[in-house]
Predict the 3D structure of the following.
Amino acid sequence: MVARESIRPGGRSARVQASVHAAVRRLLEVQDRSELTIPQIAAAAGVTPSTIYRRWGDLADLLADVAVERLRPDCDPADTGSTRGDLEAWFAQYVDEMSSAPGRAMTRDVLAGTSGPRNAGQCVAFTRQQLQVICDRATGRGEAALDLDALVDHVVAPIVFRILFDEVPPSDAFWRSLLDRCLRAPVAA
Amino acid sequence: MVARESIRPGGRSARVQASVHAAVRRLLEVQDRSELTIPQIAAAAGVTPSTIYRRWGDLADLLADVAVERLRPDCDPADTGSTRGDLEAWFAQYVDEMSSAPGRAMTRDVLAGTSGPRNAGQCVAFTRQQLQVICDRATGRGEAALDLDALVDHVVAPIVFRILFDEVPPSDAFWRSLLDRCLRAPVAA
DNA sequence: GACATAAAAGCAAATAATATGCGTTAGACT
DNA sequence: AGTCTAACGCATATTATTTGCTTTTATGTC
């Protein structure tokens, strides 16, 4: 089962969803996710457990849903005046956010849900959208065109790979060198 | 809770572990993992559910444990005579295995367990070990030294990223171009 | 504005999974 | 052989999940 796609804003469904999401976020700050249960979330959100079971199916799917919502960017990348600056600023905050303990947990949650592919696809779409804005801006300035796919494959992917599979989070120097290398060899056809 | 590290081979613990792992593998072929339950696995393995709960904690951890075991390489990379050939052969089978439905599921399982970092770390260690063998072989032949980290960051990572986050599995052309690019610019200091 | 409709939530009871105390057994070590 | 310990089985208690049915709430129609 999966969360409904289109929910009228302001309706009862939306309110329930909001309070459940809020309850999850609140509880996750206080306790470990291995202790988290659906009845507990239901109580904290002021709804019946069966409501959650019917809408989200199980805990993994609910957590995935919450994580996707939290990973959704809320504004465009900062405009620093230069493409390089835009990219550096964006990746700095991206790495910072993603390699934090909650960030790692959210990424895992997104992948763990029953509909892992769907949720994960949405997340990478967010990332691409953000980078696309920077790419478009570069083109608008008349600078050399950026290769979005190269950025994803050679900067984003190694960063996320490290976050998911390595104990130590990616260092500042690490992602900067990835970005350097990518910008230096833009279209290695 | 986590599976014990060192278990004497041939002991009762080892037998229980083997039969539980086998039961999980067997059941996963027949039915969806969302239907899979611990009592069911216990019955199929001929043990008591409490045994599984005590040893593995929960289903996610058990699945992670099984997945790590299945991802453990059972032999060295094939020796094709050339480094390039070794890499191509190895990546061909790696991508094939990892992007299959069971492969994707296993990768997700590894990340989903309570001790995600530990298990994931083990998997990337397997990969590095395999690639290290190829690197050593290259050095032995007197060829140019390969950059293991570059292979992981710029070939393995984009492949795994695609498998985890994209709906469509990485194409043959995709990983070949990654490998090409990596071999052409080996030490881009 | 009252009324019908449908989707979603609440409630409560039934079922299933998970946790745990305690006795038993298998293997390790002397 | 005898002892010791870790792990298992069994039975029981607790907790989570599912489900049928009722009630609520928002929406669209007259």
About this structure: Residues 146 and 183 of chain A are 8 Å apart (CA to CA). Residues 11-13, 16, 47-48, 50-51, 54-55 of chain A lie near DNA strand C (CB under 10 Å from a C1'). The interface with chain B takes residues 34, 60, 108, 111-112, 114, 116-117, 120-121, 123-124, 152-154, 156-158, 160-162, 164-167, 178, 181, 184-185, 188 of chain A (CB under 8 Å). The mean pLDDT of chain A is 91.
